[in-house]
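#struct-pred

JT: dropping the chains for the assembly here, can someone run the whole complex?
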Amino acid sequence: MAKKPIGPVRRDFAPWDDPQAKPYIEFRNVTKTFGDFTAVDNLSLKIYEREFFALLGGSGCGKTTMMRMLAGFETPNAGEIFLDGQNLAGVPPYKRPVNMMFQSYALFPHMSVEANVAFGLKQEGMPKDQIAARVEEMLKLVKLQDFAKRKPHQLSGGQRQRVALARSLAKKPKVLLLDEPLGALDRKLREETQFELTDLQYELGMTFLIVTHDQEEAMTMADRIAVMDRGRIIQIATPAEIYELPNSRFVADFIGDINLMECKVAAKEGEICRMTSVEFGCEIEVAQPVEAGIGETVWFAIRPEKVRISFDEPESRVNAVTGEVWDIAYLGDVSIYHTHIANEQTVRATVANRSRVVERPVGWDDKVWLSWDADAGVVLTK
Amino acid sequence: MRQGPSWFNVTSLVLGFSFLYLPIVLLVIYSFNDSRLVTVWGGFSTRWYGTLLGNQQLLDAAWVTVRVAFASATIATVLGTLAALVLVRSGRFAGRSLFSGMVYAPLVMPEVILGLSLLLLFVAIDQARGFWTIMIAHTTFAMCYVAVVVQSRLAGFDRSLEEAAQDLGCPPARTFLSITLPIILPGVVAGWMLAFTLSLDDLVIASFTTGPEATTLPMKIYSQVRLGVTPEINAICTILVGVVTVVVVFTSLLTKRREVRRAQDMRQAEAQA
Amino acid sequence: MPEQVSTRPRRSLGGWLLIAVPYAWLLFFFLAPFFIVFKISLSEIAVAIPPYMPTFDPADGWNGLVELVGGLSFDNYVWLTQDDLYWKSYISSVSIAAISTLITLLVGFPIAYGMARAPKEWRTTLLMLVILPFWTSFLIRVYAWIGILKNEGLLNQFLLWLGLIDQPLTILNTNLAVYIGIVYSYLPFLVLPLYANLEKLDTSLLEAAADLGCPPWRSFWTITVPLAIPGVIAGCFLVFIPAVGEFVIPDLLGGSETLMIGKTLWMEFFTNRDWPVSSAVAVILLLILVVPIVLFQNQQQKAAERGL
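RK: done, full complex below.
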């Protein structure tokens, strides 16, 4: 069966689907413990050249430890890390061809912007005139030419972030590591910078590895995302796949909003799988292969925006459930309807507010029908 | 809820600071007293300062004191900075609690014990006592003060700055010199100044550890104070207080100005952005 | 390929050297002397240089050592219990230090509190004003009080002039003068940690208390004071421990009846030249202070770990 495109984005860059492609960064069975705490648990991961890769997860999931092991600040207890074919074991941080942009930016407070950007080049022993030229080029790239002589404390947050970026790019590292790069910026600036970073990565043709807890950031920027939890990778996929085809309840719940219903597999007929949900009191049919036998418990997951809400009873009772509107969250662009169905269960449905005036809007306590298409949801077995 | 300072707070501050400063102010005033009877005002005069200049013994003692203070402060600053680095950075190692114990204990240890124990050490190793023994004694207790001062500076130090330097290709030793040291320098300088004044002040430890040929200024002052209050002592105290006041006030004004300018810069940077 | 299995950070040679240098210095010049003090406290006074016996001569080797150990005795400690000068000194040192610490706290708390509640732009200046006397000589500050407290001193002149008294008060050379001296000299040690603690106190806590109906005088006792306890403890240790062994203040301001162990030790050493007994005095003093010193250190370490 040909692979159907998932999500609205078409992409031509996909070395991870090519079995011949050589990974650029590879973690092989890496474990890292701090005392009793296992930060990274026997983890393997391949990242390809020119990829914008995101490690996404909550605090303490091990994402920062992964990055710090690659940079050389932590030594794995077991396993190996390769960069461009070279085993990094025993290579100190100051000899690794990767550079990091720190969460706090870590700009040297006693040095000017210029000196900060030049710092790495000086360590290489680059001749002075070349350093000057490179620094200028870098400052131009981040649009800070006029701020070369300033000290870090004379810059705004956004400017500091760009100095940190210029400094870590100056040495043309094989990989740029970004540790929560936008965490300290306000929302508007963060959105702008997200696109700037993606464009920059594309132009420079470099490999970026970003660590973030912000799913929006990861989804906007990354080619692929690894969702991490308790030192393990739960799923590695493109943003669209992560969202549309989560492989587990954890990922489904972590990324975006989702309705989860416990079901039992009732019948399988070719591509079609039929399930019943006791809690929700409904029949569910999906057009996807399900790796579970008849009678086994699975979870049906459906995003609120894929649930239709209407007063009219649908033709089929399959993939439909009735209930009473309990709460409405009006967010301007969309409204989220919390509907109480049988057994005190709630299903959320998001409706885009397309027009300003609606003839008969759905209100509180209205009896409504919720329905969805057979390919709208996903069945999870984990 | 920002109210004006309450009368209670103002009163306690005024009384508190009067208590702290009145004795010193009186001492300074009476050093300009023309009368030999220290408590009877006999008109303004600077003649006691003149007699000081003629007192060769006193000048010698002052010179010894300054040399001891300079040498011990410098060594104590190096050792104390190392000790602070160990406390903040070295993590766990065998004997760590003994080490931190040895750093904090001299801060509160009665001077008579420190002095006596060091003297007995010098006797046990048959070390002739004098300039060097005082200096070593002062270094030992001053380094602990330096360690505490530098430690507090290091505790607020953002480790990612060092990591950033290493990430950009700078080896650890060079990172310390080009990044860490410049940033903790204010703490190190404050530590040196503290060590210097501690050594300058010390009477008890110096009395124990000195030998016949080295007499420090506090020892000299002490032996004269025991005989009673004299205007010369007032004068020399005034000079010491004056020097310390000028240096401390000057440095804190400098720091304050730098902080104010820094705050202004930061406000401007955010406004321009 | 080598697998790295390490739980401890690997320490380079430089890392060990960094630890070794200050460690060795403190071991040799701070810790080792205490063992010597202890050894000498078990010796006898002798008319010799150094003035105690037995002494250890490395040339005698093992036999010398055996003889040395055989010659040691606890006689000096027995002596300390027999002559009531010593135990009276210890008791009065501790009680003078405790009373002075309490007075220092009573004087220092309002100052620290006033500083912490002062407008922000004053605070640095006020802080500097508290630190400044700390930088000036201890000896000078004690000396300054002699001129004030003595019979024909400034305080008596002032009180006579006011007409409050018609006879000069005898303050110098009494315990009262010692209290004044200790409170005055150690005040900054108490105010500084207390101020640091009170200044960090989030005023919104007091606002929250007020919002919940707690009047200011009660929120002072239920919010401010409990949160200031670490500062109070640190400050009291910084005053109490050195004050117990204080020498300069009782010597210059106290009278002949003022017994303090620091002064006793000094006399024993410099006047009687009895090194073994003064060593024994020091050992007992150290034993008395060990508990507060250990408590103080724990507190400091905890504070350092919190990043103060």
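JT: nice. Chain C has a mean pLDDT of 85. Chain C touches chain B through 100 residues (CB under 8 Å).
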